[in-house]
Amino acid sequence: MQLALNQLAAHLQKGLRPLYTLHGDEPLQLQEAADAIRAAARAAGHSERSVHTVQGAHFDWSSVLAAGGSFSLFADKKLVEIRIPSGKPGKDGSAAIQQLAENAAQDDSTLTIITLPRLDAATKKGAWFGALDANGVTIQIDPIERAALPQWIAQRLARQNQRVASGEAGQRTLQFFADRVEGNLLAAHQEIQKLGLLQPEGELSFEVVEQAVLNVARYDVFKLSEAVLSGNLPRAMRMMDGLQAEGTAEVLVHWTLSEDIRNLKRAKDALASGQPLPMVLRSLRIWGNKERLFERVVPRLSANAAVRLLHSAHVVDGIVKGLPADNWPSDSWQALRKLAVDMVTALQGPARRL
């Protein structure tokens, strides 16, 4: 049974299932979801806990199966946690997980929590994951998108009876907060807790938040890609500064931007030949938020602009590798910034008929 993360609290109030599977790459929300299940399990009498971390191809799955089936003299209910950091249990693990899932439906004395990283579509169609979904509760934990981060921060502040000013001033404060903790919910959580310790309940001014919140942004090239495709040039430049400061390799940033340019060109050409854009994007393996961004910008991109961007990406590839080019900055990071600016400019042109 699939369950949305925001439904977990209400679900736990109604009663526990014997098997929970949490999968996703957002550590704070994954940790909080597991903590909530653990707390409910302890309240229900699951006082004996064992933790198993699956590492390597020769992991002993028999010990995991035995942990759920063994009898304890000290506790009649157990909590078994299985952590699979790779997301790939292997052949033996697949068989063991299917057996464990089937046993869980018949044994309410053991509650099992399985944690996994983000899983691709093929993995979620596998027999072992299907057994987990059929016999327990599965919860996919997705990252908080940048657009939703200010509201998430406001909700967390409200939990400790704090809030920002109403109207535009408050939104400015939340946007500032979100910018400073870009992509790092754990850091955002820590900063919110710090505000709860340092400041009284009630309204928080922009100046108070500005002084309290550290620059703990976690910049990554995939978020840079989204910033450029969404046309948010200030955010893209800020992220470029952060990537440079963190020592990110220029070649990785160039690969990210140039891969987007290549896919934009492919999508534009396919669209011009009469192919439906959704089908084109699926063939290019463009999913999720990036798919929505491509659907918006591809019709705006002219064929000539797509060709120019492809040429610019080739030029910057040479600059990153130490080859100078006329009318381009010699510094790699400055050339990458110019490429990002060119992309934003090209993608914000008026929609054109093909």
From TrEMBL:
Occurrences of domain DNA polymerase III delta N-terminal (ranges): 20-139
Keyword Secreted in record: no
InterPro entries (UniProt xref): DNA_pol3_clamp-load_cplx_C, DNA_pol3_delta_N, DNA_polIII_delta, P-loop_NTPase
GO molecular-function terms, A-Z: DNA binding; DNA-directed DNA polymerase activity
One Pfam family named in its UniProt record: DNA_pol3_delta
GO CC entries: DNA polymerase III complex
EC number: 2.7.7.7
UniProt GO BP: DNA-templated DNA replication
Reactions catalysed, as given in the entry: DNA(n) + a 2'-deoxyribonucleoside 5'-triphosphate = DNA(n+1) + diphosphate
Presence of the UniProt keyword Repressor in the record: no
Keywords from the UniProt entry: DNA replication, DNA-directed DNA polymerase, Nucleotidyltransferase, Transferase
Stated family: Belongs to the DNA polymerase HolA subunit family.
NCBIfam families reported in the protein's UniProt record: holA
Protein name as it appears in the record: DNA polymerase III subunit delta
Organism: Comamonas kerstersii
